[in-house]
Write a structure and sequence with these properties.
Layout (H helix, E strand, L loop, with lengths): L2 E12 L2 E12 L3 E5 L6 H9 L6 E6 L2 E2 L5 H7 L1 E3 L12 H12 L4 H14 L15 H13 L5 E5 L7 H15 L4 E5 L3 H5 L4 E6 L2 E6 L1 H5 L2 H6 L8
Parallel strand pairs: 3-8, 3-9, 6-7, 7-8
Antiparallel strand pairs: 1-2, 1-4, 4-5, 9-10
Helix pairs in contact: 3-4, 3-5, 4-5
Length: about 240
């Protein structure tokens, strides 16, 4: 498999506050990678650097072997990078379908007929087809998270970034969402998932990256990473001799 995403010595600081400290890693096409770390570790900032809503202080982002560091977020989205946000913010006064259509027409620049087909496919895949004509503001939390996922899918991504999409859900809702994400991965979409609900991550990902203070402190097979001393001490707060 070939790399779909490479971050090369990616750094970002706001004055004396460093949110990304020379982060380097590559992700292969079709891979599912989880990212964990304490609050303030720089996880969402890393997503912002990958999607182009933040520009790095130094370093580069390569997508499909192309340097996209100078590209804006709209260009990166049309190239195949999509994301969901931690707090869903749908257009509450628009229907579910209209929300998804905005993503298909503006995120993927699809023409009307193709956009319509893409929207229906995405809604079906995320289980929202029955709510297609309902106002987005009437959705439950799980449904709003599904709408976030649907809008991301409607932009035809090859790389999908998920930011704490399982947060706030019950165990049953979380399991339902896991199954949806597994089905998306089965279509060949590469997934990078930030999540504090670790058991949800472990049901999907084959690799785990741990961030702390803007640095990667562990990267590897999930169970090995979770049980490593550095992760137990820095992320879980478990003393080395515990």
């Amino acid at each position: 498999m070939s790399n779909i995403l490479t971050c090369d010595a990616l750094s970002k600081s706001f004055g004396s506050v460093v949110v990304a400290d020379s982060i380097s890693f590559s992700i292969e096409k079709g891979e599912a990678v989880g990212i964990i770390g304490p609050n303030g570790a720089g996880k969402t900032s890393l997503f912002n650097l990958i999607t182009g809503t933040l520009q790095p202080t130094s370093g580069q982002v390569h997508f499909k072997a192309q340097d996209i560091t100078p590209k804006n977020s709209a260009t990166r989205c049309r190239a195949g990078i999509a994301r969901s946000f931690q707090i869903p913010q749908p257009f509450a006064g628009m229907s579910v379908y209209e929300n998804v259509l905005v993503a298909a027409t503006h995120g993927a620049s699809l023409k009307p007929q193709q956009a319509q087909a893409t929207c229906i496919d995405a809604l079906e895949q995320t289980g929202l087809l029955a709510r297609v004509n309902d106002l987005a503001g009437s959705l439950t939390l799980l449904e709003r998270k599904r709408l976030e996922l649907t809008r991301a899918l409607a932009s035809n991504p090859s790389l999908l970034l998920l930011d704490e999409i399982a947060g706030g859900l019950t165990d049953k809702e979380c399991q339902s969402l896991i199954e949806t994400i597994q089905s998306i991965r089965a279509t060949g979409v590469t997934i990078v998932w930030i999540e504090h609900v670790v058991h949800a991550l472990l049901a999907v990902v084959e690799r785990l990256i741990v961030l702390d203070f803007g640095k990667i402190i562990a990267d590897g097979e999930p169970n090995t990473v979770i049980n490593s001393q550095v992760v137990r001490e820095n992320y879980m707060g478990i003393a080395a001799d515990a």
